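Hi support team,

I've been running sequence recovery on a batch of backbones for a student project. Most finish fine, but this one hangs at about 90% for roughly twenty minutes before it completes. I'm not sure whether the input is malformed or the queue is just slow. I've pasted the structure tokens below so you can try to reproduce it. Let me know if you need the job ID as well.

Thanks,
M.K.
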């Protein structure tokens, strides 16, 4: 960083309790970009302490999604369940210092307390019954009850921080009750584990969703109790779905890996997601390298970003257009194979790069591009019914017959020779270009909307053209 010698260390700490979606992955993108911009370290930590809801399948989607988006990590993944001994050791230290105490209040007692508080129009909160204080007599310890461990929250003053997204944030300590930091079985809770992890891993900047804002004052108190440095916080505004609701799986959000399978480019998704909460002037399209160069925490947005798949498709289309033809051919190959073309067919000649170059301006995704490429290697063509009815008319038949005969006799198979043949047929038949080009397009590629006819036909090859012209 420009104003300190401390090496920047950021982290992404997802819970594997559901498939990671684009709203989640943005909380990985920003700390990754900040670490790269500052030449620091980016750490991946899997917060898997919710044993009932965590799954290996969800972990796999996290790892696959980050690998696809090239959000490379410097350390990790670390798993919280593998650090339980460390958490319990730190708990014991805090308990020995008198900063943690056992609480024997049962869940039933706690529920009854909250009901009374709500009836009195008070905020429901733990009342400190078991908190030890000088001169205070605690209730008798009930038999057969395993206590929770609570953290002794300061009861006066203010806890505050300067948030990189929200500005100055303050909480009155009197509004915070004593947090449970270990369950009756001794398992530490989320807020405590996070602080121990961030302390041990030397995290300097915590960049995460604003649903964690209410956890932050609790965590600052724990950091202080541990004698740890308090990181810089940036609580990112929520990502909304297209209906204006918080993005979530149950509201239709797709797993990140689904966009990979749907033919989106990783760099395009990074470009689009970067703009959902951060900006660099009016720049909408930029490379990964530009994003890293430009990214800072001073231009994070403060309002929620709304996901728009149509806009993301547009961004993807622009990245497809800008990609070098050979690289695009490499990326589209698995999709072409999935569409029914064998690897042997693709390797039989050098047409793929040229086909890609011809059609990439028309495609939003690699799947779209693969569907065009497939037509040059397979025999099956599905015609658009409306185009067929409009262009494959009785009047078109003699023109098509003349064109088929001219193509069949063509010796020099080049784009220029095909263009000259088309002109000759047009002159001979006394028709204009659309009267020949449109039905030829429908017969050869299934649609009246294609790039230049001579370029398409040159790449398609004489044999396939004649076969498709015969199927009227």
């Amino acid at each position: 960083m420009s104003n300190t010698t401390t090496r920047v260390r950021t982290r992404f700490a997802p819970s594997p309790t559901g498939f990671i979606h684009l709203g989640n992955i943005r909380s990985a993108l920003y700390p990754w970009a900040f670490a790269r911009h500052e030449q620091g370290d980016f750490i991946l930590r899997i917060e898997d302490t919710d044993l009932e809801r965590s799954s290996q399948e969800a972990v796999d989607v996290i790892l696959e999604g980050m690998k696809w988006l090239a959000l490379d990590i410097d350390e990790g993944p670390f798993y919280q369940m593998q650090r339980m001994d460390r958490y319990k050791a730190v708990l014991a230290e805090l308990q020995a210092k008198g900063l943690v105490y056992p609480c024997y209040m049962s869940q039933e007692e706690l529920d009854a307390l909250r009901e009374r508080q709500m009836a009195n129009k008070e905020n429901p909160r733990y009342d400190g019954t078991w908190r030890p204080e000088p001169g205070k007599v605690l209730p008798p310890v009930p038999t057969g009850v395993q206590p929770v461990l609570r953290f002794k929250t300061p009861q006066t003053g203010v806890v505050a921080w300067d948030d990189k997204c929200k500005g100055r944030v303050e909480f009155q300590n009197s509004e915070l009750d004593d947090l449970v930091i270990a369950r009756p079985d001794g398992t530490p809770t989320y807020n405590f584990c996070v602080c121990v992890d961030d302390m041990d891993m030397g995290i300097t900047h915590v960049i995460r969703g604003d649903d964690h804002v209410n956890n932050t004052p609790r965590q600052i108190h724990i950091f202080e109790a541990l004698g740890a440095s308090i990181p810089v916080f940036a609580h990112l505004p929520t990502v909304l779905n297209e209906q204006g609701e918080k993005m979530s799986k149950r509201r239709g959000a797709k797993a990140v890996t689904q966009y990979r399978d749907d033919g989106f480019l990783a760099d395009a998704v990074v470009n689009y997601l970067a703009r959902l909460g951060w900006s660099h002037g009016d720049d909408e399209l930029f490379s990964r390298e530009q994003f890293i160069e430009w990214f800072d925490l001073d231009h994070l947005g403060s309002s929620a970003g709304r996901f728009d798949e149509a806009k993301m498709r547009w961004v993807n289309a622009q990245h497809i257009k800008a990609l070098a033809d050979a690289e695009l051919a490499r990326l589209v190959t698995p999709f072409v194979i999935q569409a029914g073309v064998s690897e042997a067919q693709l390797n039989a000649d050098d047409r793929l790069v040229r086909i890609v170059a011809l059609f990439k301006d028309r495609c939003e995704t690699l799947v779209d591009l693969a569907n065009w490429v497939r037509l040059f290697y397979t025999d099956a063509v599905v015609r658009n019914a409306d185009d067929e009815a409009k262009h494959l008319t009785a009047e078109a038949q003699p023109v098509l017959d003349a064109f088929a005969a001219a193509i069949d006799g063509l010796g020099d198979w080049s784009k220029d020779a095909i263009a000259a043949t088309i002109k000759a047929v047009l002159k001979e038949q006394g028709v204009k270009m659309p009267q020949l080009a449109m039905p030829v397009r429908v017969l050869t590629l299934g649609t009246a909307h294609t790039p230049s006819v001579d370029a398409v036909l040159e790449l398609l090859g004489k044999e396939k053209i004649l076969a498709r012209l015969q199927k009227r």
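--
Follow-up from support: It reproduced on our side and the slowdown came from queue contention, not your input. The mean pLDDT is 95. No action needed from you.
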